[in-house]
Amino acid sequence: MRNLLMTVCYDGTNYYGFQTQPGGNTVQDCIEEAIKGLTGEVIKIHGSGRTDAGVHARQQPFHFMTSSKIPIERWRMALNGRLPADIRIIEAAEVPLDFHSRRSAKRKTYRYTINGNRVPDVFWRNYQLHHPGKLDTAAMREGLRYLVGTHDFTSFASRHSTKASHVRTIYEATLEVETSPVYSGSNEQGIIHILLTGNGFLQHMVRIIVGTLLEVGEGKRKPEDIKTILEAVNRKAAGPTAESKGLMLWSVEYDAIELKGNEERC
């Protein structure tokens, strides 16, 4: 048997998330079907994590076991020829048999994008939350500071979370404002990117953080309220869950992996 690690990027607009759902159209379903068409094997891939319906991924690793002898350098092109245009394998490598894409992950980064301009960008509308109202980005940036560190994030987790522990560590939390002419429409506030890097994330965690930060930006809450919300350990203390379309799994990092044979990258 061989253990293959691949990285996929996808536009999640038309999918019910990454992980297989009962009766749902998911990214995992498409990849597993593509592998079956290529090798004839019925296998289950293991992702570095799950994403909600409508969430996108710039880099999402997954691994699977295969008895196929297909050289590693041929996998990417062969699978991409069988996948929908909104799902693409961008890297492929053979890794040790004990490697696990989720358990071996050390750091994950999510990016949430808000279009703060008066006019939404028609070309980026599936990847940005449009918020034309004035936002105090300095206050939002200050609020983010209270998230850095190890905390119980129950207040920022879905009520349906099944995790035994809601303690997570956030290593970095930043807010960037982009006024690039790449985006069509007016540029009153620009494009706001919120990036969170941590050792793991709970269901809806980033989206609830963003929904709460938007209330800070609107002046409905103070930046220091984020600390109070964390301490409450109660979902009712936080703000609403922001729309899924603005969220993207940006990257997943591992310790150095001993690769076996060739590695294929684009």
UniProtKB/TrEMBL annotation:
Source species: Paenibacillus yonginensis
Family designation: Belongs to the tRNA pseudouridine synthase TruA family.
Known EC number: 5.4.99.12
Protein known as: tRNA pseudouridine synthase A
Biological function: Formation of pseudouridine at positions 38, 39 and 40 in the anticodon stem and loop of transfer RNAs.
GO biological process, one term: tRNA pseudouridine synthesis
Domain of life: Bacteria
Main EC class the enzyme belongs to: isomerase
Positions that bind substrate: 110
Residue ranges of every copy of the Pseudouridine synthase I TruA alpha/beta domain listed in the record: 9-102, 145-255
